[in-house]
């Protein structure tokens, strides 16, 4: 699934991963089922994000909460701790543009790619996110043999300055730069570790 991740062309990139190894492939397969349930329950992602966590929600084009597994074309809203978007709902918006699943005897994998977009509930075309529309966030869970892992790969992360107010430009620059150098790695390392945590 790594071939699905877009190439790095501009701005910053982040790569975060966590993994856990079991005594047998059967134990890993069982745990991967649990991890995949967590992975596909986007509304619960904040439970795995650790301290100072962002809020995540799966939504339709009207902004209504979706209580199901994600599908291509769905939206996600993100509320960053301390530095909310100045739009009407305070959210940063991304859209799911690809979902893939793979299963073989020795390997299981699931992949979600999202991209910043405009808030679909308001009549404007500007991207409602601290990164511009060239950026992607790539979420990946996998099992190989007796090891289960989770990864987040950010690509082409550049602050969004498109048709933004001065306040949003300042805010987007602060969040994006923080994301490039500190916050993203901390946030996503907590998320990947929480996602694959073995509670047994």
Textual characterization of the structure:
With about 200 residues, this protein is an alpha+beta fold. The protein has 3 helices and 7 strands. The protein has helices at about 25-40, 165-180, 185-195; strands at about 10-20, 55-60, 75-80, 90-105, 105-115, 135-145, 145-155. It has a 7-stranded antiparallel beta sheet with strand order 1-7-6-5-4-3-2. The mean pLDDT is about 80.
In short:
This protein has 200 residues and is an alpha+beta fold. The chain contains three helices and seven strands, in the order βαββββββαα.
Write a concise keyword list for the protein shown above.
alpha+beta, 200 residues, 7-stranded antiparallel beta sheet, 3 helices, single chain
Q: What is the subunit organization of this protein? A: single chain
Strand content: 25-35%
Radius of gyration: 17 Å
Shape: globular
Sheet with most strands: strand arrangement: 1-7-6-5-4-3-2
Number of strand segments: 7
The DSSP helix count reads 3
Which spans have pLDDT < 50 for at least 5 consecutive residues? none
Tell me roughly what share of residues is in helical segments. 10-25%
Q: Report on the biggest sheet.
A: 7 strands, antiparallel
Could you state the order of secondary-structure elements as H and E? EHEEEEEEHH
What's the end-to-end separation, in Å?
28 Å
Summarize model confidence as the mean pLDDT.
82
Structural class call reads: alpha+beta
């Amino acid at each position: 699934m790594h071939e699905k991740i877009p190439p790095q062309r501009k701005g910053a990139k982040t790569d975060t991963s966590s993994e856990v190894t079991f005594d047998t492939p059967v134990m890993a397969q069982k745990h991967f089922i649990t991890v995949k349930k967590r992975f596909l329950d986007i509304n619960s992602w904040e439970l795995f994000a650790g301290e100072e966590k962002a809020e995540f929600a799966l939504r339709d084009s009207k902004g209504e909460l979706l209580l199901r597994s994600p599908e291509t074309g769905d939206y996600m809203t993100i509320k960053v701790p301390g530095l909310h978007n100045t739009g009407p709902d305070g959210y940063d918006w991304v859209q799911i543009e690809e979902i893939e699943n793979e299963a073989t005897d020795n390997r299981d994998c699931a992949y979600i790619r999202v991209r910043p977009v405009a808030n679909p509930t308001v009549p404007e075309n500007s991207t409602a996110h601290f990164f511009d529309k060239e950026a992607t966030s790539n979420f990946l869970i996998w099992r190989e043999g007796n090891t289960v892992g989770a990864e987040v790969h950010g690509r082409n992360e550049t602050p969004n300055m498109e048709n933004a107010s001065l306040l949003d430009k300042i805010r987007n620059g602060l969040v994006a730069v923080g994301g490039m150098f500190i916050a993203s790695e901390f946030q996503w390392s907590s998320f990947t570790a929480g996602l694959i945590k073995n509670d047994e």
